[in-house]
Each structure stands twice: as structure tokens, then as C-alpha cells.
Structure to design on (151 residues):
């Protein structure tokens, strides 16, 4: 079965799940990740992402060199980073996503989807870092101004 950046959908629901097949475990993890968009709140979404990460990691135990599984795991960590309000913590998830995208590219260096995922996640991380630094500077400036005004 061709798994390269496979986008799972409704037709997979008719598939008989084999808990010992890494492709089936990946399919399960991907479907869990896709369900996150329907979660009603941040906590539910975070729990669904964590469940997807767990399934995808389980699949990697059975087939550690499956670039599709590695790529989806990168997607899951990116989503986890996007759900994390503290930039310092989010950066850890983005770094993890970048590591998985790099691993996928090592297995399939010509895959443009893997490359674009890596580039876009690195760009998001950079933008968020700049925003966080700007917020820190604004906060410091505001505190300094408040202190001066009080004197």
C-alpha cells in the first residue's frame, strides 16, 4: 500500500484494522489527529493530539523508517505547538516537529510536501519567536514607563 503523505478519509472507516500492522496504526493516529478539528475546547483538542502522537509513535516502534508516519508525527507536534500559549514550551514542540520533518526528508529527499512542511514550521517558529520577543520588550517598556510615571 502506498503511504507517502497519504491523506486518510472516510473510505478508511471500512478498512479492517490490524493492531499489528504499522500502516493501520498510522491510519488510526492520522484519523485521531484529524478529529482534533472537531473538538469543542482547547483541552479536548490537546488530548486528541496527544492520543494521535501516542498512536503514531506506536507505529514507529513497528516501522521506524516509514516516512509517512514520521511526517504525520511532525504534523501532530506542530499542532501541539500551535495549541501551546507559552512560546518557550511551544518552541519545544516546533523543534520536535522539525526533527520529524527532517527525518522524513532523509528517507525521501525529493518529497516536496515534506520539504514545505519543514520550511513552513521553521517559519512559524521564527515568527512566533519574534512575536514573543516583541511582547517581552513591550512588557518591559511598559513596566519601565509605569515605574517612571509613579516616581
Amino acid at each position: 500500500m502506498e503511504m507517502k503523505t497519504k491523506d486518510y478519509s472516510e473510505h478508511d472507516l471500512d478498512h479492517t484494522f490490524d493492531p499489528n500492522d504499522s500502516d493501520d496504526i498510522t491510519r488510526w493516529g492520522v484519523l485521531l489527529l484529524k478529529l482534533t478539528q472537531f473538538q469543542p475546547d482547547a483541552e479536548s483538542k490537546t488530548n486528541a493530539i496527544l492520543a494521535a502522537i501516542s498512536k503514531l509513535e506506536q507505529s514507529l516502534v513497528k516501522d521506524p523508517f516509514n516516512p509517512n508516519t514520521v511526517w504525520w508525527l511532525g504534523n501532530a507536534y506542530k499542532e501541539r505547538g500551535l495549541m501551546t500559549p507559552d512560546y518557550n514550551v511551544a518552541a519545544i514542540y516546533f523543534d520536535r516537529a522539525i526533527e520529524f520533518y527532517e527525518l522524513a526528508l532523509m528517507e525521501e529527499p525529493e518529497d516536496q510536501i515534506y520539504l514545505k512542511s519543514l520550511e513552513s514550521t521553521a517559519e512559524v517558529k521564527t515568527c512566533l519567536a519574534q512575536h514573543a520577543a516583541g511582547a517581552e520588550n513591550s512588557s518591559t517598556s511598559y513596566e519601565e514607563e509605569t515605574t517612571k510615571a509613579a516616581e
Remarks:
- Residues 7 and 116 are 16 Å apart (CA to CA).
- The chain is about 75% helix and 0% strand.
- Confidence is low (pLDDT under 50) at residues 140-151.
